[in-house]
């Protein structure tokens, strides 16, 4: 990545902005509801600690030492003669694949912000579900408009570069997002019994509801929500200030990401339980259930709904920028593109495919835009979340654990971590991470079924 570099706090905000995305607020609550609550959350937290943090440090190390795009960073550090590990850096394009459906969801959020400002909130679940279904299946032009707005914002921020674009956006949006969610959490505490029930649902594990599918989903979601395996953290780390402590940075990124996910889960379930709604309502939770809940609080509910969707849009946009930046840097460094050309190419690519993705949900075109039994939307979400991101994480772990010279790695990271923590991290990256991710990938392919 070209200079200028991030400031220290700017990097943490940008990396946290990359990690804290729609996965924390849109996805985490509904999959937690679907997979039984506390047991799923426990697996998720263990995954973050034992796998996510380890790979996060590994990606930051590669980026900070390689000082370039993901492919070039792997190439610079690869000690083997033919540099085959540079191909692991093609994870830079995982982010573009995620953006094909991620930008569509950001568009839905913009649509709901507009509706909150211009129309009364729906007062019952059937109406809210019908509104959401109508948007996704019968309003392609509305979706296209908001998808284009989301793309335009991402493109403008990326074109402005590291300091004036990415860092400035995250320094504004991330504190705002945190403030909004902490405020909503404090508001939800007044629900008393419902708030306590939300805490129990989130943190009291019922292992009878824990399946191999839930374990795989928790591991995959940890990768998705931490932006691991997309090249985002690695690319941002190439712009780290010199002598920055990447272990501390990784800790704060993982902490902020996990804290926001848990806060979002608790407050969403507190609202749901207070108004006697079911937690396992699926992907439409924040678009169907939450507006109805807010409507029952009168004028304050409209304000809370607006704040909720604004926070959701901030989470989406900060991650969207980080998902696109790796391909931008790759095109600049490997093909000599100007920043404008690289940003335009990346944005137009995911925007164009995203049009097909949103049409894969629309009546009349959905039958033509499927892969197997899945819509393009469902296919891209599945292949990135469950396959490409963990596979890229596996390659990163193998490269750090078995290919890089051990002495150089120890010299840099042991000073930051201390001997004991470094030993735990080293064991995790060499054994726990590869075994867990290999199990996950074999389970998904049906080779191992538990």
Q: Would you write up a description of this structure?
A:
By secondary structure, the protein is mainly α. It has one domain: Amino acid/polyamine transporter I (Up-down Bundle). It contains 18 helices and two strands. It has a two-stranded antiparallel sheet with strand order 1-2. Helix 3 (38-66) packs antiparallel against helix 12 (246-274). The chain is globular and about 65 Å long. The mean pLDDT is 90.
Order of helices and strands: HHHHHHHHHHHHHHHEEHHH
**How widely separated are the two ends?**
43 Å
Tell me the overall shape: globular
Strand content: under 5%
Backbone CA Rg: 21 Å
Overall pLDDT metric: 90
Number of domains: 1
Return the CATH class. Answer: Mainly Alpha
Give the number of helices: 18
* Biggest sheet: strand arrangement: 1-2
- The structure class reads mainly alpha
CATH architecture: Up-down Bundle
Largest sheet: 2 strands, antiparallel
Number of strands: 2
The percentage helix is over 70%
Keywords:
single chain, 450 residues, mainly alpha, Amino acid/polyamine transporter I, 18 helices, 2 strands
A few lines on this structure:
This protein is mainly alpha-helical and 450 residues long. The protein has helices at 8-19, 22-34, 38-66, 70-77, 94-118, 125-138, 140-159, 161-188, 193-203, 212-226, 232-237, 246-274, 285-295, 298-335, 339-359, 376-403, 406-417, 419-445; strands at 370-371, 374-375.
């Amino acid at each position: 990545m070209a200079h200028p570099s991030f400031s220290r706090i700017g990097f943490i905000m940008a990396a946290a902005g990359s990690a804290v995305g729609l996965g924390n607020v849109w996805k985490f609550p509904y999959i937690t509801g679907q997979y039984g609550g506390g047991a799923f959350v426990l697996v998720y937290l263990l995954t973050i600690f034992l796998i996510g943090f380890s790979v996060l440090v590994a990606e930051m190390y590669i980026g900070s030492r390689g000082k370039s795009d993901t492919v070039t960073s792997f190439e610079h550090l690869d000690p083997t003669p033919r540099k085959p590990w540079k191909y692991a850096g093609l994870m830079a394009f995982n982010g573009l694949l995620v953006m094909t459906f991620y930008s569509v969801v950001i568009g839905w959020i913009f649509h709901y912000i507009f509706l909150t400002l211009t129309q009364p909130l729906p007062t019952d679940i059937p109406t809210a579900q019908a509104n959401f279904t109508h948007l996704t299946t019968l309003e392609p032009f509305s979706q296209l408009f908001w998808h284009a707005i989301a793309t335009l914002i991402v493109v403008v921020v990326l074109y402005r570069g590291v300091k004036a674009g990415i860092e400035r956006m995250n320094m504004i949006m991330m504190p705002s997002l945190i403030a909004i969610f902490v405020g909503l959490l404090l508001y939800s505490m007044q629900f008393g019994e419902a708030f306590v029930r939300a805490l129990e649902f989130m943190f009291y594990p019922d292992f009878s509801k824990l399946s191999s599918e839930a374990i795989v989903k928790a591991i995959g979601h940890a990768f998705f929500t931490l932006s691991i395996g997309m090249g985002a953290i690695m690319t941002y780390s190439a712009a780290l200030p010199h002598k920055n402590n990447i272990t501390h940075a990784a800790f704060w990124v993982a902490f902020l990401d996990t804290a926001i996910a848990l806060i979002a889960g608790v407050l969403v379930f507190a609202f749901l339980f207070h108004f006697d709604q079911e937690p396992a309502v699926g992907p439409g939770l924040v678009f169907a259930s939450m507006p109805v809940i807010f409507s029952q609080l009168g004028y304050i509910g409209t304000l809370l709904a607006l704040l909720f969707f604004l926070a959701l849009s901030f989470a989406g946009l900060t991650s969207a920028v980080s998902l696109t930046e790796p391909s931008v840097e790759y095109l600049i460094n490997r093909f000599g593109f100007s920043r404008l050309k690289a940003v335009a190419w990346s944005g137009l690519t995911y925007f164009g495919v995203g049009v097909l993705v949103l049409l894969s949900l629309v009546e009349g075109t959905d039958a033509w835009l499927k892969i197997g039994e899945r819509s393009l939307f469902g296919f891209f979400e599945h292949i990135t979340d469950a396959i490409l991101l963990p596979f890229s994480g596996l390659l990163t772990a193998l490269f750090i654990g078995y290919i890089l010279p051990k002495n150089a790695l120890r010299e840099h990271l042991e000073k930051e971590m201390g001997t004991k923590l470094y030993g735990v991290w080293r064991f995790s990256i060499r054994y726990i991470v590869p075994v867990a991710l290999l199990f996950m990938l074999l389970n998904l392919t049906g080779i191992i079924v538990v």
